[in-house]
Amino acid sequence: MTEAFDQWQFVIAAYALGGATTLGLAAYSWLAMRRAEARRDKVREG
Q1: Cα–Cα distance list, 25 to 1, 10, 20, 29, 38 (Å)
Q2: CA–CA separation, 19 vs 35, rounded Å?
Q3: Cα-to-chain-centroid distance, residue 35
Q4: pTM, whole model, 2 decimals?
Q5: What secondary structure letter does DSSP report for 29?
Q6: Dist. CA 46–CA 41, nearest whole Å
Q7: What sections of the protein cross the membrane (predicted)?
Q8: What is the pLDDT of residue 6?
Q9: Taking 70 as the threshold, does the pLDDT of residue 10 lie above it?
Q10: What is the separation, in whole angstroms, between the first and last Cα of the chain?
Q11: Closest CA to 18 of 29, 30, 8, 10
């Protein structure tokens, strides 16, 4: 008896990894934008 190859586990894992990576990149970009705005405001004040 052989088991059929279940590809759905890999499909779900790929979507989860892609979603997590996208959210991580968005969070990193948002934080970088906030740091850049803070630097800009500091230069404008001083």
Answers
A1: 45, 22, 9, 6, 20
A2: 24
A3: 18
A4: 0.73
A5: H
A6: 9
A7: 12-32
A8: 85
A9: yes
A10: 76
A11: 10
The rounded distance, in Å, linking the Cα atoms of 26 and 10 is: 24
- Residue appearing with tokens 């404008």: 44
Residue type, 14: A
Question: Hunting for tokens 């405001």 — which residue is that?
Answer: 41
Could you tell me how many residues make up the chain?
46
The amino acid sitting at 34 is: R
Q: What is the dihedral of CA 39, 40, 42, 46, to 10 degrees?
A: 140
pLDDT at 2: 63
With tokens 């990193």, the residue in question is 28
- Say which residue the tokens 């740091």 belong to: 35
Where does the pLDDT of residue 4 fall: very low under 50, low under 70, confident under 90, or very high at 90 and above?
A: confident
